[in-house]
Amino acid sequence: MPPAKKRAQRTRSYDPAKIRAAVSAQFGHVRDAVLALPEEALDGPTRLGDWTVRELAGHLAWMVGAVPELLARPEPAQRELPLLEWPFATAAAAGRIDEHTRALDTADLAALYERTREAYESALAGAQDTRLLPVSLGAMTLADFLVTRTVELVVHTDDLAAATGVAVPYDRQALAACTRLLCDALAAKAPGGAVEVRVPPYAVVQCVEGPRHTRGTPPNVVETDPLTWIRLATGRAGWAAELDAARVSASGERADLSGLLPLMG
């Protein structure tokens, strides 16, 4: 992980009400897709090691169920994990997350998803966005933690689609928040203004040390679509392969981001 001082920058603001709704909407899309799968599809493989589709489905429910679980616990004394630090901190928890996911009771996914939906909506009804949650990676505000839920849901929706062939819809706000946070994480990891990274229609950031662009066409530009960017940022796609497939365009001698990716383990 880069030194914290290199990631000192203004954090993008997110509309808390829109993020709450985005989490709910994307979870609804996931629920509909999962519950429509035939039983045999749930035993199929995913690209997440040896997780089955059923385990992935359970993990998705847990990512949303963590919100009411954390709100039910005592509030920490102070914030410990800023939103921009979260993507870099996730790799350290991979083993614990894998163990917990495998231990989930996923025998009745319909009941699990309904309990999760009800608990999420009930817990948020009276919760303040500034409420601190005892997240295992470090205490975060509720508002920030919900932004991380859009990342979890969008990334794993893509995993679900890849495993099953089902075209699961993406809530626009959830996809936008996920894209923006991972773009900002890149800018935080490699601060500077030499390269402009464009992920239309959701984000444009400048990064990498070097001459800062001020007007006209930037000399170093990277452009891609949201899902390709998310796959690159999370290690689900490789830089060279995406360039070869023309899903990424990169112009300029500094526009090679391969040494900075992935951002999340």
Q: How is the secondary structure organized here?
A:
Elements: H1 16-35, H2 39-42, H3 53-71, H4 86-89, H5 94-103, H6 109-124, E1 132-133, E2 140-141, H7 142-164, H8 172-189, E3 195-199, E4 203-207, E5 221-224, H9 226-233, H10 239-244, E6 248-251
Parallel strand pairs: 3-5
Antiparallel strand pairs: 1-2, 3-4, 5-6
Short descriptors:
265 residues, alpha+beta, 8% strand, two-stranded antiparallel ribbon, 10 helices, globular, single chain
Mean pLDDT equals: 94
Radius of gyration: 19 Å
Indicate the overall shape. Answer: globular
Portion in helices? 40-55%
Give the total of beta strands.
Answer: 6
Based on helices, strands and strand pairing, what is the structural class? alpha+beta
User: How would you sum up the major sheet?
Assistant: 4 strands, mixed
